[in-house]
Design brief:
- This protein has helices at residues 2-6, 11-20, 49-53, 59-90, 103-121, 124-129, 143-162, 170-194, 201-240.
- By secondary structure, it is mainly alpha-helical.
- It is elongated and about 75 Å long.
- Mean pLDDT is 79; it is low at 23-27.
């Protein structure tokens, strides 16, 4: 399902072309009634003359902007990829059969923790703006947090592979996807915050539009690699330990006669 959703990015350029197609707005057709609206006098807004006169970017300028935005693109790609792969391919193997929460419900707890991290991380500057201190907590180089996302992902892969004892409780493990999603949310907001900083309006617009590709690319990469990572971790777990749960799913088909809470 994630693979199907991520392929919808193909519709984005089609929609953009459809919306940007030039229309004859200076010569309205005869079907329009010129008396159907009332003209309101207005004064032009002050604007930057360079931005107003420049409506298109050359190929050289586009390539230059792509090169300048590449570090932010890679940083957000790594952050989103690590967050999604952790939840979709690693946390699915972090099951605990002796816990009060059944394995099939433990994954729901992990997803809830990840969503809570996104809820607090992405709008964190808005929360801090109520205190007037948001400028003190902006991060101009969010790729540093992306490296922390990658570090957390590697640690959790090792935990799932070797079954370290310090993470042996579902509520303790749930803190990890929460922290990872929180850091990813901070990377997200700061990446778009400083994309195209100091450039013209049209250049900033292009840089931020380019960064949206990191979201789709990361989700597509997770959709292609998540099943392989999950399969390898689950198979290794069942090979070395047959007395523990290795999968936060039911191994049998769903029976509607059973309660969903079982």
């Amino acid at each position: 399902s994630l693979l199907l959703v991520t392929t919808l990015w193909i519709l984005l350029p089609i929609s953009y072309i459809a919306m940007e197609e030039p229309r004859n707005i200076n010569n309205p057709g005869p079907s329009l009634n010129p008396k159907s609206f009332k003209e309101i006098p207005y004064s032009p807004l002050a604007s930057n003359s360079s931005d107003a006169s420049k409506t298109r970017l050359s190929i050289i300028e586009l390539l230059s902007l792509l090169w300048q935005t590449e570090p932010l693109f890679i940083g957000m790609f790594v952050s989103i990829f690590c967050k999604q792969l952790l939840v979709s391919g690693v946390m699915t193997t972090m099951a605990f059969s002796d816990d009060s929460v059944t394995p099939r419900n433990q994954y729901l707890l992990y997803v809830l923790a990840s969503g809570a991290g996104d809820l607090l991380g992405r709008p964190y500057l808005g929360y801090l703006s109520y205190c007037g201190i948001e400028d003190n907590f902006t991060i101009r180089k969010p790729w540093f947090l992306s490296s922390l996302n990658a570090f957390i992902l590697i640690i959790m892969v090792l935990v799932s592979w070797f079954r370290f004892g310090f993470l042996s409780h579902v509520y303790t493990v749930a803190v990890v996807p929460f922290l990872n999603a929180f850091l990813s949310g901070i990377v997200f907001v700061n990446t778009f915050q400083f994309a195209g900083e100091g450039l013209s309006v049209i250049e900033r617009r292009f840089c931020r539009a380019f960064l949206t590709g990191a979201l789709w690319a990361a989700n597509l990469a997770v959709a292609l690699t998540g099943l392989t990572v999950e399969y390898q971790l689950r198979e290794h777990c069942t090979d070395i330990r047959e007395d523990i749960a290795c999968f936060t799913r039911s191994h049998t088909a769903w029976d509607p006669s059973l309660s969903c809470a079982v």
